[in-house]
Amino acid sequence: MKKSESITEINKLADEYARTGDFKDCLSIEHRLGYEGHPYAQEALGDSFTREQINEICKLARSPEEVARRIDFGDWLDIAIQLAKSVAQDQFPGVQIFVHEKILIVKGPTRSFKIKRKDWSNDLEVGSSWEERDGRWLSSEPYNQIPNSNLKGITSKRTMELVMEFAERAAKV
Known about the structure:
The chain is of the alpha+beta class.
């Protein structure tokens, strides 16, 4: 991998790590990336502007409000999976429903949906992927907000409706 590609990857990983709430600051992320074998971590994260940005994201991600939102979303994921396994997969046998890296994935034969929590909020958003005729998979970016899906007021019924809606869409070939 070229140095410029490595630095781009390091910046992307640093942002992802900061948003987890698992890191106190940019320096702790830099150490983790170095441990993972990224030789340009110090260089990529060394300027004061980048450090300040990463430090601010770490601070936000570790705030009590954001920690509570992550817990709410984790609870929602647990409910969604329980509901999905009992109903959606019976009605749509070709559809897989699972959680990967705190994202609910509803995957059909040629289409999949990723439902995640929007950063710094209680709102849910969705992205999709689909298989082209030539076998390539394409993705939609950015994610789109799902209407009526704020974790503070979402009911089990609405959760089930969401899972079923995306399972039905994923099942279509």
